[in-house]
Amino acid sequence: MSSVDSLRGVVASLMSQARADLAELVAIRSVANHDVEPPEECAKAARWLIDRFTEAGLSEVTAALTPDGSRCVHGVAPGPPGSPTVLLYCHYDVQPPLDENAWVTPVWELTERDGRWYGRGAADCKGNIVAHLTALRALAKHDGGFPCTIKLIAEGSEEQGTGGLEAFVPEHAELLAADAILVADTGNFAVGVPTLTTALRGMTTVDVRLAALSSPMHSGMFGGPAPDPVVGMVQLLASLHDEHGNTTVDGIDATEVWQGVDYPDDAFRADANVLDGVELMGDGTVADLLWARPSATVLGMDIPSVTGSAAAVQAMAAARVSLRLPPGTTARQAQDALVEHLRRRVPWGLRYRIDRVAAGDPFIGSLDGPAFEAMRSAMEDAFKHPMATEGQGGSIPLCTVLADTFPTAEIMLLGVEEPRCLIHAPNESVDPSEIEHLALAEALFLTRYAASGDT
Ligand SMILES: [Zn+2]
To answer: Nearest-5° angle of CA 294, CA 300, CA 303?
Structure first.
């Protein structure tokens, strides 16, 4: 029997324990918002991780306070001298249930239905915690130990976006330093299709204000020559797209092609709730437009509402514009380009002000290197399917922090959160085969990555 097959057997033998663990973990209501659940729930979850990862072979597993008041759990298992270090990431806080009545099975009770396991956090991210644990247990059982140094970091407030761990990481770089980082908080493109998420879009937001008159004026008596800031704003915003819907910001390339997995139009239309007969925007494929190109969106406008509007030329108008950006440009560069694009197009000498609101850099994960290659072969053997790469339209600020803090580390995003999991929604679930295959992939990866340094 090859080592893949024997390790596969060991992982399979650990799945009933994995299920019991996930049931315990899902029963802990670890929403990191004290208005929703008492703080003892998150403390209980942190304690649970400390106990389980200690049993699994890590030492010095402790919960550390981060600046937002949440606690991250970290620990380490030193590997053989000269072996590489792998940091395993996950988070133990969860989204609130949202509409409890919309849940078919109890929110906080892991329940099997049609082969899937339901419950809040079953996938995001407690399923990933259990996958990490199962991988470590499998190696301990199969090989009697770990082939390299393993570090754990489990975040306690990921779903709140309060940035506790993002602040903790640079201040504790020594504690978390690693050659490869597995961020287990995404998922496969579909069940059984091993997928690394290799690109996350960045984002920048600006507010534009236009002013022309010292007060609104009657549109019958003054409309025509009176400079209209609402019309000016419409012209300005229209310049952000061409007639096909491609984003057109001066100095920002919008022609890139996505090299990874395809995102079929039909699937996207369904996911995005696009109405029948309405076309998608842009000239490229869905994957090009979503993961490889910039995308401008008007988030809000200050102009009179239709209801209650009067026959007047407005004195001023405002809009908030967001620009999502693919890897290849920094958020600051894109923001400069957007501000300059808008500034140059303000018509009729209107007075204007452009405020910079937010900026987050895009992230690109490892696309080659020894860890990436070890992961590819591990994923393909575990899932018996070629590995795909996909992007994600949103951003995960922690990934940028990890990349900045550990510039030489290979960072890979993966996990059990495939689209059917309905993370962040009622009736969240996980496919247990994803936990099993991911745990096997992770165990194989650790073995092969550790061996890749040997000559
Ligand atoms: Zn998550």
So the answer is: 135
